[in-house]
């Protein structure tokens, strides 16, 4: 059930945000490595992760039926 919630929540992220989340948590890459792969500054990777976490923090409780 948790994996279904995560899949739905991740689908709500932008392509760039989802890529950063997947590379960080599923592939174990560091921000500097992700920046090289995505050909962008490391601070852009950090910003994308910041916004992705905010979205996920809002969506996951809603998907679980417990609004924040």
Structural account:
The protein has 68 residues and is an all-alpha fold. It is 76% helix and 0% strand. The protein has four helices and no strands.
The percentage of residues in β strands lies in under 5%
| Termini separation | 19 Å
Query: Helix/strand-derived class?
Result: mainly alpha
Total number of helices: 4
Shape: elongated
What's the short story on this structure?
This protein has helices at 2-11, 15-26, 31-38, 42-63. The chain is mainly α and 68 residues long. Helix 2 crosses helix 4 (42-63).
Brief descriptors of the model:
76% helix; 68 residues
Task: Indicate the topology.
Layout: H1 2-11, H2 15-26, H3 31-38, H4 42-63
Helix pairs in contact: 1-4, 2-4, 3-4
